[in-house]
Amino acid sequence: MTSASVTHSTIDAVWRMESPRLVAGLTRMVRDVGLAEDLAQDALVAALERWPRSGVPDNPGAWLMAIAKRRAIDLFRRNERLDRKHAELGRELASEQAMAPSEVDSAADELIQDDLLRLVFIACHPVLSTEARVALTLRLLGGLTTDEIARAFLVPEPTIAQRIVRAKRTLAEARVAFELPVASELPARVSSVLQAIYLIFNEGYSATAGDDYLRPALCDDALRLGRVLAELMPNEPEVHGLVALMELQASRTRARVTASGDPILLLDQNRALWDHLLIRRGLAALERAKVLGGTLGPYGLQAAIAACHARARTADETDWERIAALYDGLAELSPSPVVELNRAVAIAMAFGPEAGLELVDELTDEPSLRTYHLLPSVRGELLAKLGRLDEAREEFERAASLTRNARQRKLLLDRAAACQVE
Q: How many angstroms separate the CA atoms of 341 and 217, rounded?
């Protein structure tokens, strides 16, 4: 790999980590989320032009923000609004300079946190459709491409691109303020916020594309946003249910990949590597959700499923019948083809591969799963357990052709090869 390609890979990684904070901070300054993203993209272009020659700066996030601020000043100068905006930026810089370095860092961290949460609620504003809210939040908060969001939604990429463009236009036309909603508005808006946060987490937990199986920075962003939301809405059971689910799933991170970055399936993981602090936090959040809600909602039920895995000291001790029952409840409360696929896996583990395969076969004509690589992957696993190795190999190969993640593709091709050897 050339030095230029290494630099470009570094820029891509930096952008993934810094773009949500950059867009959030710029939105606070310019009060226009579409303009903020344009300014952030300008800063990215500048980085792509300069960093291959000058090297990546020590604080790339600050560099990108400085460039974006300059672009903003240039823009407002052209629009004859320089004096007011320049004064705002000047006051911000002056207040930072008046603080001690430790105070600046602390204040900046708090400001970034507030900005990100405000950006979540702007992206999930009631003037937008639910689909647009989630797509825009993933774009702005997760730094995901339209292709990655489309795969998360199982819809065509142009559909997502149109949603994002229309969403930003709608927000601008409605002059949505950069502020948190008042208390009376929070319950009505929290559902789409939770969905967006969890989709961000999922993209980090199992990347849809690229060379890395995990994107821990996205999981960290989603976890932080979830925890902040739990503090903001301490009496909402599903907020705690989502936090519990993310804590419990994130507890497996260190055990989910090899030293070289290849995925390790759940039943093969070294459970000694699971993060027991995150497990305790997750179980505590799940208990709060139960106490507050009486019955669990969709996120709480998924957290209860994750808790079954967390409590099992070995894979053989997993209570699959309990998990299958929880999936029955989830399928009734929040039905979807993906839930049915996961339920089929649980049924197979609890009652045998034949029972699971029967359910999976009912999903093969489901339009939304036609390009979903986990459908043939699950079917391949069940066929392999039944000794139907030629069919299993074909399913693994088909799954490998559908995934855009290099690590997942390698795993699936290895499974296909194993079916030929056996």
A: 28
Q: Give, to the nearest 10 degrees, the angle between helix 130-142 and helix 146-153.
A: 130
Question: CA angle, 44 as apex, 39 and 48 as ends, to 5°?
Answer: 150
| E runs forming strands in 103-174 | none
Q: Which residue(s) pair with 387 in the sheet?
A: none
Q: Which residue in 375, 305, 297 sits closest to 346, CA to CA?
A: 305
Rounded distance, CA 331 to CA 241, Å? 17
Query: CA-CA distance, 284 to 282, in Å (whole number)?
Result: 5
User: Are 251 and 279 contacting, i.e. CB atoms less than 8 angstroms apart?
Assistant: yes
* Mean pLDDT to the nearest integer, 3-27: 79
Q: Are 360 and 341 in contact (CB under 8 A)?
A: yes
What residues contact 198, with CB distance under 8 A and at least 6 apart?
A: 222, 242, 245, 246, 299
For residue 271, what is the DSSP state? G
Two structure tokens written together for 138: 């993933």
Query: 86-104: per-residue pLDDT in tens?
Result: 566 655 555 555 554 444 4
Partner residues linked to 405 by β-bridges = 210
Contact (Cβ atoms closer than 8 angstroms) between residue 292 and residue 237: yes
Highest mean pLDDT among 83-87, 155-159, 295-299: 295-299
* pLDDT above 90 coverage of the chain, percent: 48
Q: Quickly count: other Cβ atoms within 10 Å of residue 347's Cβ.
A: 24
- Decide: pTM greater than 0.85: no
pLDDT at residue number 414: 95
Cα–Cα dist 85/75, whole Å: 10
Q: Which residues pair with 263 in a beta bridge?
A: 257
> Pick from 336, 277, 337: which is nearest to 310 by CA?
277
DSSP 347-408: HHHHH-HHHHHHHHHTTTT-GGGTT-THHHHHHHHHHHHTT-HHHHHHHHHHHHHH-EEHHH
